């Protein structure tokens, strides 16, 4: 049997259960008209509800979280490009949101905790931590599945394991609760490799431990894995060989924020689509932007994060199928506490 890092009642899961979602006080506005496009207009221009009741005051500041840290403080993808270029901000201003505050996180569980505590309104992260958070009681809704081709890579130490089967009795550094955790746990189970020890390390710590020979292998994501391979570390496996173990990227919003801004999923996805169309028209500029974020060449970014993988619709049948498979695995392996209805979680 392999060693599982269970998301139980201690650690991350306990924090999820312990943090209460704060209810926002709702200020009533005077009766007013409806915006031309059928959405809620900014601030005091929020449309009146049927019978003359006023809608809630929309916040002027939007707090958004993403995975990764960089000097520019932007994520990649359509979301990052749209925020970097101001495309998304211009769309949000129509609804009274005058500022978007961005916060980068080293991993999904940390971001989920900030969302649950109310420090964030919404955020984009891997599907596994988002599903784990929802399973453990987080009051969130999924509004976008921006990418469905997140590949986990298994990198061995130099002179160490040469194949997945060689991991028996070995130690693998993982980012606990990430889509790569789901990938390696599923791989080890399917290939029936006993006594594999998983230890939680953030990417930079795992890379350092691997270089010193303190762990036998580690999971990593595309561009960083490519760098390790170029440095001579052996590639033991990757999720492209196991399509059902591929991860996805998802954007979730707190239910508390949705109460204030019920139309936010539609507004966000329309702004995101506008940003996507803009970057599709400027591919060279977009890859230069990614290069500024992660320090790798535009050519390597083109290889690891092609524009073609960015989805132009909130959800696809293929993407939802991957989500469902990941949720089932997490429940079956007792990595997640409670099952839940995926269709009720997704805003369509």
Automatic annotation (TrEMBL):
Tell me where the signal peptide lies.
1-30
Matches recorded under SUPFAM superfamilies: Periplasmic binding protein-like II (SSF53850)
> Which Gene3D superfamilies does the entry link to?
Periplasmic binding protein-like II
- Note one Pfam family from the annotation: NMT1
Native organism: Paenibacillus thalictri
Q: Which InterPro entries match?
A: SsuA/THI5
* Domain named SsuA/THI5-like: residues: 102-285
Q: Tell me what this protein is called.
A: Nitrate ABC transporter substrate-binding protein
User: Which keywords fit this entry according to its UniProt record?
Assistant: Signal
Keyword flag Oxidoreductase: no
